[in-house]
Amino acid sequence: MSHDEDFNLSSPGVLAKYQEAGAIAQRVMTALIGECVEGRKVVDVCSLGDKLIGDETASAEKGKKSDKGQAFPTCVSVNNCVGHNSPLPGDVQAFAAGDLVKIDLAVHVDGFISTVAHTIVVGQSQEPTSGRKADVICAAHFALECALRLMKPGNKNTEVTQYIQKVADQFGVSPLEGVLSHEMKKHVIDAPRVIINKATPDHKVEEFEFSDNEVYSVDIVMSTGAGRPRDEGVKPTVYKRNVDSTYQLKLKTSQAVFRDIKTKFPALPFPVRALDPKTGRMGITECANHGMLTPFPTLFERGTEFVVQFKTTVLLLPSGTHRLNTFPLPFVRSDKEVVSPDIKEVLARSTESPFAKKAITDGSSSSTTA
Predict the structure, then answer these.
(1) Which residues contact 335 (CB under 8 A, 6 or more apart)?
(2) Please, are residues 32 and 103 in contact by the beta-carbon 8 Å criterion?
(3) Is pLDDT of 368 > 70?
C-alpha cells in the first residue's frame, strides 16, 4: 500500500476522522453565525471562533493520542473584503445592519481537515434581501451545487470551472479570480491538484480527472464587481510555514517567534493573533521577508461591491459525492434565475454514484452520506 493509500478515504478510520472534523466545524460555524450581530466587533468573533475550535478539539478523541485543532484560523470578511480578514486585538471594525459577512475556518482531527465558509446578512428582517446582494448569493449557491454534482470519477476539473462561470452569467456577477479549490491530504490543506474558480490567460491550472477516495476543499467565491481583487495596503494577519524553506534568522525575536510557530503550527495556517502580542508582529516580518512563511493577503473588491463565499469539504466516495457541511442560506429574492438548460440538467443530477446501491448490496461499501 502506498503512503497516499494509507491515508485516503479507503483506509479504515480515515472517513470517521473527516466526519468528526466536519462535525466540529459545523458546531463552531453555527455558533459564530449567531454572533454576527449589529455592533459586535469582527475581531471578537474571530477570537471566539479560534477558542471554540480549541475547546471542541480538546474534547475530541478523548483518551487517545491524537493531533487535532485548528487547520485555518477564523476569518470574518465584510462586504467587499474578499477574505483572510482575521484582525489583531484592538481592531475596531464592527458589524452594521445589512452587512454581507463571510465566515471562514477549518478544523482537523489527526491531520484530516474539514474546511468551511458561509455567508450571512447581518440583522436580516423577515423581508428577503434583494438586489445585487441577492444575485451574488444565489450565484454562489447554485455554482456550489453544480460543482458537487460534477465532481465524480472520470469528470474533469475544467468542467467545474466552466459551470461556475455559466452560473455567474445567469445572475450577472463574476467568479473571483485567483481562488483555488485544493485537494486535501493528511496535514495538507493545499495539495497540488486544484479547481480554479475563474480561468483567465494569467490564471490557469493543469487539467485532471477526479478519482474515488479524494478529498477537496471546494471554495466558491462570487462578486458583484469585475472579480479582480486588489491590495489596499492591509497587512496580512494569516500565515503558513514553508516547511521546505530555511534561513538563518538574525534577530533573536524572530528566532523565538519561529520556534513558537514550528511548535504550535508546523504545517497549517495560523493567525498572528495567536503569537506573543509583544513580539509576534516583529518576528513575523523577518520570517516572511526571507520566505520562511507565506502570507494570506487580505484583498478587496471595489468599495461599492459585494463578495460572497460558500466553501465545504467534499469527499469523493465510491457511494457518491458527499459534503461534510451545510448551513441555512440567507433569505433572499433575486429577480434573476437559472434559465440555462445545461445548468438545470446538472442541478437535477444526484450526487450519489449510480453503482452505490449495488455496492452497498454487495457489501463492498459501508459509507453513508455525511
Answers:
(1) 130
(2) yes
(3) no
CB-based contacts of 285, cutoff 8 Å, min separation 6? 254
Q: Cβ distance 203 to 177 under 8 Å?
A: yes
pLDDT at 183 over 90: yes
Alpha carbon of residue 123 to chain centroid:
24
Residues in the chain: 370
Encoded amino acid at 111, one letter: G
Maximum alpha-carbon separation in the chain: 63
Write the secondary structure of the chain as one string of H (helix), E (strand) and C (coil): CCHHHHCCCCCCCHHHHHHHHHHHHHHHHHHHHHHCCCCCEHHHHHHHHHHHHHHHHHHCCCCCCCCEEEEEEEEEEECCECCCCCCCCCCCCECCCCCEEEEEEEEEECCEEEEEEEEEECCCCCCCECHHHHHHHHHHHHHHHHHHHHCCCCCEHHHHHHHHHHHHHHHCCEECCCCEEEECECCECCCCCEEECCCECCECCCCCECCCCEEEEEEEEEECCCCCCEECCCCCCEEEECCCCCCCCCCHHHHHHHHHHHHHCCCCCEEHHHCCCCCHHHHHHHHHHCCCEEECCCEECCCCCCEEEEEEEEEEECCEEEECCCCCCCCECCCCCCCCHHHHHHHCCCCECCCHHHHHHHCCCCCCCC
Beta carbons of 203 and 236 less than 8 angstroms apart: no
The whole-model pTM stands at 0.91
Q: How far apart are CA 56 and CA 96, in angstroms?
A: 29
Grid coordinates belonging to 134: 441577492
List of residues 6+ apart from 124 with CB closer than 8 A: 330, 331
- CA 163 from chain centre, in angstroms, equals 19
Q: What residue has cell string 452594521?
A: 96
The pLDDT mean for the chain works out to 90
Is 84 in contact with 298 (CB distance < 8 Å)?
yes
Q: Who contacts 212 (Cβ-Cβ below 8 Å, separation ≥6)?
A: 9, 10, 153, 316, 317, 318
Task: Report percent pLDDT > 70 for the chain.
Answer: 91
Between 71 and 63, the higher pLDDT residue: 71
pLDDT of residue 103: 98
